[in-house]
Amino acid sequence: MHSKSWWWAQYIGLGDDVSILFIGPCAIYAHCIKLCIDNNIPFLAVDININHHRDDRIMLRRNHKAKEMMSERNFAQQYVHIVDPFVVENLEAFDYWLNSHKFIPETVFCHSEALNALRLEKHLNEKFKCNSHIDDRAIDFFASKREQDRVCSDLGIPVPDKTGDKIIVKRDYRDTWSSPIVIPKMSFKDSSYEATEGEFTQEWIDIQYIYNCSVYIDSYGDWYLVFNNRLVCEYSIPYAGENPYFPTPNILQQLIDIISPLQKAISVKKRFLMVQIMQPHNSNKLLYMETNCRPSTEFNWVRNESRSTFDPYSHMVFEKSLPNAFQFDKVLHTDLVFNSIKHKMSHSLLSSAEIWDDWGNNWSGKEETILDGAYIPIKL
User: The pTM is what?
Assistant: First the structure.
C-alpha cells in the first residue's frame, strides 16, 4: 500500500521518478528541503565549505519571523553535503561524486550566480535530460551585470547611462563559486573613475523605489509575473519595504514591458527569477536594474501561510499549475538594515562609501490587515 505522500506526489504530477538536486547556499532553498522531507521526495543538496552565513547575527536580532527562518535553515543544513570547492568546479569530479551517491536528478536547482556553478547546472540538465533548463545565453546573462546591460540595451529596455556626474560601481561577476570577494557589492565614484577588472559602472541614479519582481518560469518555458514587493530608498539605498506591493496600472505595465522582452534573449525552465526595476525620484519612468537567477532569501518574509496563499517554493518543488490568484489578508511593512544607520549618511559620505553586504535585508516588520488583496499571476 502506498503512503499518503506517494498519493500526493501522483496528484500533483510528480510520479515515482522525481528527484531534486539543490546546488548552492542552504539559506535560499531551506524550505524546499522541508517540503521534500514532508512529502518523501528524493533530494540531494550540496554546498561548499565557505561561510554563507555572515548575516546570521543580524538575523537573530530581528523579530520572531527571522528566528523562524533561522530555525528552518538550521533544520535543512543537516541534510546538506559540504564538499571541497574542487568537486563543484570540475565537471568530471562532480559526476563522480554524484554517481557515488547513486543519485539521478530530475530537476536541478542552482542558487549560485558564479559562472562555473551555472555551467555545472547546464551540464547536469543535459546529461540527465532534466525538466530544468538553462542555455549559454542565460548563463552569461545571469553571471554578469555588464552582459545584462548589453542585452537590455539591445532589446530596447531602458537602462541607466554608462556615465554621468556621479557613477555607481558594482561587482560584475564571479568566475568560480569559491572565488574570494575582493570587490564591494557597490561603491560610489565621480565621473573620472575608470573601472577595473570585475567591475561594472553606470550613472548614479537617485532611486526612490525598487520593485522586486518575482518571475516564475515553468517546465514548458512559459514566464509569469507572480509577485511584487517595493523597497523605499534614500541615497539610492533601500531602507523600508512593502510586501506585497500592488502596483498601479501604469507601473504594472512598465514592469511587464521591461521584463517580457528578456524571454527573447535567454532560455530557462523551472526557475524563479527576481528582476529588480528602479524608479528615480521625480520621475514616472522605470529603469532596469538587475536580475538574480534565484528567488530572494527574503521570500521567507512573505511565505507566511497565516496571511497569504503565496508559497513560491511549492512551485519549485512540485509540478503544478499556478492558481488564478494569490490571496493576501495582510501587508507586511518592514524596516531594513539601512534604516537604522541612514541618519548618519550624507551625500559627501556616500561619495566615498563602499558597501560589501546587503543593507536591504529586513530588520523588523509590522503587519497591516487588508480587506481584499489578490495578486493575479500574469503570463508574459
Answer: 0.88
